[in-house]
Queue: 2 jobs
Job 1
Amino acid sequence: MITLGIDIGSTTSKAVLLEDGEKILAKKIVPLGTGTTGAQTVFENVLEMAGITPEQIDYALSTGYGRYSFELAKRQISEVSCHAKGIRFLVPTARTIVDIGGQDAKALSLAPNGALMNFVMNDKCAAGTGRFLDVMARVLDVKVEDMGDISELSTKEITINNTCTVFAESEVISRLSSNEKIADIIAGIHASVAKRVSGQALRVGVVDDVVMSGGVARNKGIVRAMEKEIGHKITVPEDCQLAGALGAALFAWDELLKEKNAG
Ligand code: ADP
């Protein structure tokens, strides 16, 4: 039996095709978010990768900010629940999840059995989200994918004082014009994001194992800065950005089992 989990985020669309609730047949991330062709593109991509037709999907379930825009989905589930489900599949010992996406950041606290106990979300302000990093990468003329590596070359601590993205952008420009090293500025940007998001994590309570999900977890500079702020080691699964889509595919499998048992 094949299930599809599709996560239509603010910035990217992700899809996972799962066989029998355990084997990943195909997975894909497309850098187009809600309100674009992202969902359709990522859907077509995974079908092609797995060599199947839409009719062969037994249950499709969507999540993410744009989850109601995917018509093939039989059900929609919030990204908080889907991230918790996906991360526990990847890291069964996870108790605290920090998810930083394109336009929001969340901290989730899980019970030992994986049940969601509490969460804190920031979706009101770009600071402490991927958007903040995307804006800064553009100002510094670097790729967001390279920020982690570049920050490793930092030799001096720089503090970015403004939390507001617009003011922080001006501050970064002024640091550049006073000839500060790009590596030091990026490390300062990472520290600023980590300070903000760690506040959310501390509010839900940090319990090991701590895991990061979302696209920003792919930035090792952010992960290091977060570890420093919260004083815990952080695990980052390879498929951190696909956690929501994977969770959706797993929930779809649960729905199929329920239907089977009811019938
Ligand atoms: P959403 O689900 O809200 O659309 P994602 O969880 O896909 O967002 O995260 C998107 C963000 O992840 C981007 O804004 C970008 O800052 C960051 N990102 C994506 N890929 C990478 C990468 N390879 N390295 C570092 N950061 C990345």
Job 2
Amino acid sequence: MKILVVAGARPNFMKIKPFMNAISEFNAREISKTGRVDALLIHTGQHYDENMSEIFFRELGIRPPDVNLGVGSGSHAVQTAQIMIGFEALCDREKPDWIVVVGDVNSTMAGTLVAAKMGIRIAHIEAGLRSYDRTMPEEINRVVTDRLADLLLTPSEDADLNLLREGVPREQIKFVGNIMIDSLVENLPKARALDTLAKLRVNSLRFIYVTLHRPSNVDGQASLSALMDRLEEIAHRLPVVFPVHPRTRKMLSEYGIKHRSDSRLQLLDPIGYHDSLSLAENARLILTDSGGLQEEATYFRTPCLTLRPNTERPITITMGSNRLTKLDSFMDDVHDLINGPDRMGQVPPLWDGHAAERILQYILDAS
Ligand code: UD1
């Protein structure tokens, strides 16, 4: 059996590594009985900076991609189309039995569109999440990908219900748990061995970890400028560590919003996976608009404020430590949480470090 595993953007890398591991372990164990699974790793090139891509390959120990389509940045149509053109030629050449796509980025949807038209089976890891907010490009990617995928591998049971409501047949939906937590569990010892906090001169439970990159927060001058003012205010209360995503960096410079990075409000370049895990585990509070960090916060039980009107990951609120917030209310929410318990919520079912094995088994069963 041949599988093409597609990854393109930063949050994809920690989701594909456990799956690649599961395949290697299967091949080492089962080869004489059932034959080999050949997996090719395809990097679309959606993210390309050293600290948005290569650092994750290095830290996670992902082997170099077999193919890099090198598409780079562009408008949604340009980026999606470039991935489709490159990926179609690749599928033509490789003739895979399955493609595996993860998450909700443009690379996920582009790979899916190509495979569906070529009659190649599609497994979607992290299927069924819905924000029901079509102003988010990721929501469009999720809906299209899930409509076309053959096997929908879900991280939480709310995702199963979303898919059932959309008419997806029960037998195509498999609740497997959260594969990103597989990577987290495996990498935690390495993260704990680093001196991240000392390097940044912050103490455990005495700082706020901030990440903000969604177009809805950073692509408008007024909101971005207000956000930066609020962060400065919060930093009087607790030091803030804010690794700045390239999109956010670009908008800050385009709008001429200048901020000095100092020991209270540290504006950093994007950081690696292990440093990020260490910050998420030790923060007093996380303030974010990232999907992945909402889940990591839930696993660590670190109080988390998500600066968005909705989340496609409601389990991080109903079970986990996450809460939605708005520009107008987040100062109050920050004070509330800082005065509350320093760890909150519970870890959801099957966020146990073994999702990848279940995923591979379901793909083999469906083959
Ligand atoms: C993408 C995903 C988003 C995910 C995020 C994580 C889509 C629609 N969005 O958003 O879901 O949360 O990745 O990081 O797929 N840039 C660089 N270097 C890079 C990559 C990007 O400088 O390596 C800059 C470019 O100016 C680019 C901008 O960031 O135009 C945005 O990149 P893009 O991949 O379009 O979207 P993200 O905001 O990164």
